[in-house]
Write a structure and sequence with these properties.
It is built from 4 helices and 5 strands, in the order βαβαββαβα. With about 150 residues, the chain is an alpha/beta fold. A 5-stranded parallel β-sheet has the order 3-2-1-4-5, sandwiched between helices.
C-alpha cells in the first residue's frame, strides 16, 4: 500500500511517532509512506517554528533509528492537501484533529473521478495529565516529547 500523512512536526513527539509507525504498519513490507511536511507559508502557529530542514532531519533520524527510512519519502507541502488530490495513494493516516481534512480530500478526489483514500484515524497520544501531547504544549514547556509533565520554574 502507498500511505500518506502530513503535518508540521515542529517538535517530533510520541504522538507523531505513533502516526508515522501506524502509516508504516499499514503500508507493509511492499509499500511506502509519503510524509507531507508543511512549509512556513502554511503554518498558522504564531510561536517559534523550526526550519523545514531541521524538522525533516528530526523525522529522518527517527526513521533511521527504527530502520524504516528506505520506505519513506518526505516532501514539502504548501497547502493542506499536498499531492493527495492528484497522486495515487491507498490510505491516509490522520489524528482526530486532521480527520476533517481527509474527508475533504476524499470529496475532492471523488469529484475528480479518483478513488477515495482509506482513512485511518489514530487516537491522540496522551500526556501523563490525560491531555493530548502536542508541539504547542512542548514549546510552552508544559510537557516533554514523551508526555511527561514538566515542573513550573
Amino acid at each position: 500500500m502507498i500511505v500518506c500523512l502530513g503535518g508540521t512536526f515542529n517538535y517530533l513527539h510520541k504522538g507523531h511517532e505513533y502516526l508515522i509507525l501506524k502509516a508504516l504498519e499499514i503500508a507493509g513490507n511492499d509499500g511506502s509512506v509519503f510524509i507531507g511536511l508543511t512549509t512556513r507559508g502554511l503554518i498558522k502557529n504564531k510561536g517559534e517554528i523550526k526550519s523545514f530542514k531541521v524538522r525533516k532531519k528530526d523525522i529522518e533520524n527517527f526513521l533511521l533509528e527504527k530502520g524504516q527510512i528506505k520506505f519513506v519519502t518526505i516532501k514539502p507541502i504548501k497547502d493542506k492537501f499536498g499531492p493527495t488530490l492528484e497522486e495515487e495513494f491507498d490510505a491516509i493516516v490522520v489524528s482526530p484533529e486532521t480527520k476533517k481534512t481527509a474527508i475533504e480530500i476524499n470529496q475532492i478526489r471523488e469529484q475528480k473521478g479518483k478513488r477515495p483514500l482509506k482513512i485511518v484515524q489514530i487516537p491522540f497520544v496522551l500526556a501523563k495529565d490525560g491531555k493530548p501531547i502536542s508541539s504547542t504544549r512542548i514549546a510552552n514547556k508544559e510537557i516533554d516529547k514523551e508526555g511527561n509533565i514538566l515542573g513550573k520554574d
